């Protein structure tokens, strides 16, 4: 909703400024004013365009480094990063509503937000992203507040991911010690945080192609699990019901947490090659990739394993894969 209001406000301001110039100035004056406006706008957003269709450069003289494929995976990790953490939707509302949610929500929520992000990132291709949008639409204070709130939100949100990885490592049996509170878990969380911080410090090009490699590695187990589970899928298992009332708050919070933050991709716009072309394509591909990466593994796991919905806690997808690999259809999940 905020992105929609922001885009309408920017469009209104642009239309008003253009109408005023057309009504008040002579043709030569309008041309000079437009040229000056373009120069100021380009310098303010940190970019210039080369003539002749060549690669774009920033005012600092460095070539834009992010192309289509790295941008797709950067968006993928900004928004999702795989079906990790989707289990609680099954716990809250059962398999059927979870599958419907991950089928509908990426398109009902993700497509409008990604379209607005693509349009504004192409119009304001600077590394400030949504902060630039808010600044131009509502003034510097709004830009500052949005940037600060978003920063605090992301710090809190990202802190959850390392703990989630530890849950998966512990639940899968790779590193059982990190599943429980203690020195091993704390060390693992701190180590992962430092490693990811170093990768980000290494530069956007390394981060982009690193995201591609990490995406392939993180998706490979789910592709394998889905392929192995297909012969065992029984659609009747998708109708399994939760005990008691459905927890709709947990269900929608899980969907929203796993399918939000499309606008964060805009903060890389200053590094994207030909953002007016690359951003819409990358966002369209990312919507399909994200929807498929949640929906297909969940369809396979819930359809192939006779596990009750209350077994679906964080990390249970690893248990489901293990149960399927050993031919068991009675996975009970970790203790809650």
UniProtKB/TrEMBL annotation:
It comes from the Eukaryota. Its main location: membrane. One of its GO terms (molecular function) is symporter activity. The chain crosses the membrane at residues 66-84, 90-109, 130-152, 209-230, 282-305. It is found in: Cell membrane. GO terms for cellular component: plasma membrane. The keyword Cell membrane applies. Gene3D superfamilies: Amino acid/polyamine transporter I. InterPro entries: AA/rel_permease1 (IPR002293), RMV1-like (IPR044566). It is a multi-pass membrane protein. Keywords: Cell membrane, Membrane, Symport, Transmembrane, Transmembrane helix, Transport. PANTHER family: EXPRESSED PROTEIN (PTHR45826:SF22), POLYAMINE TRANSPORTER PUT1 (PTHR45826). Belongs to the amino acid-polyamine-organocation (APC) superfamily. Polyamine:cation symporter (PHS) (TC 2.A.3.12) family. This is Amino acid permease/ SLC12A domain-containing protein. It comes from Aegilops tauschii subsp. strangulata.
């Amino acid at each position: 909703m905020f992105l929609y209001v922001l885009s309408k406000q920017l469009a209104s301001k642009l239309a008003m400024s253009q109408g005023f110039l057309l009504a008040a100035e002579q043709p030569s004056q309008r041309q000079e004013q437009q040229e000056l406006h373009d120069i100021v706008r380009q310098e303010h957003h940190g970019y210039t365009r080369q003539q002749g269709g060549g690669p774009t450069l920033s005012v600092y003289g460095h070539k834009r480094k992010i192309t289509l494929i790295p941008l797709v995976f950067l968006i993928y990790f900004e928004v999702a990063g795989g079906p990790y953490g989707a289990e609680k939707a099954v716990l809250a509302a059962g398999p059927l509503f979870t599958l419907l949610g991950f089928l509908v929500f990426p398109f009902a929520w993700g497509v409008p937000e990604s379209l607005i992000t693509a349009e504004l990132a192409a119009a304001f291709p600077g590394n400030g992203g949504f902060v630039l949008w808010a600044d131009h639409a509502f003034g510097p204070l709004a830009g500052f507040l949005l940037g600060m709130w978003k920063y605090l939100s992301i710090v809190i949100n990202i802190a959850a991911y390392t703990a989630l990885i530890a849950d998966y490592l512990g639940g899968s049996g790779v590193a059982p010690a990190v599943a429980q509170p203690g020195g091993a878990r704390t060390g693992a969380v701190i180590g992962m945080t430092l490693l990811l911080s170093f990768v980000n410090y290494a530069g956007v090009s390394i981060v982009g192609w690193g995201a591609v490699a990490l995406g392939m590695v993180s998706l490979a187990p789910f592709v394998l699990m889905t392929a192995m589970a297909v012969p065992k899928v029984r659609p009747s298992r998708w109708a399994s019901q939760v005990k008691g009332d459905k927890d709709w708050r947990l269900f929608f919070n899980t969907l929203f947490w796993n399918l939000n933050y499309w606008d964060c991709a805009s903060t890389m716009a200053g590094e994207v090659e030909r953002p007016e072309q690359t951003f819409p394509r990358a966002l369209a591909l990312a919507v399909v990739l994200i929807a498929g990466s949640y929906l297909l593994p969940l369809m396979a796991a819930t359809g192939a394993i006779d596990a009750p919905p209350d077994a679906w806690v964080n990390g249970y997808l690893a248990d489901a894969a293990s149960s399927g690999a050993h031919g068991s259809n009675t996975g009970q999940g970790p203790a809650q």
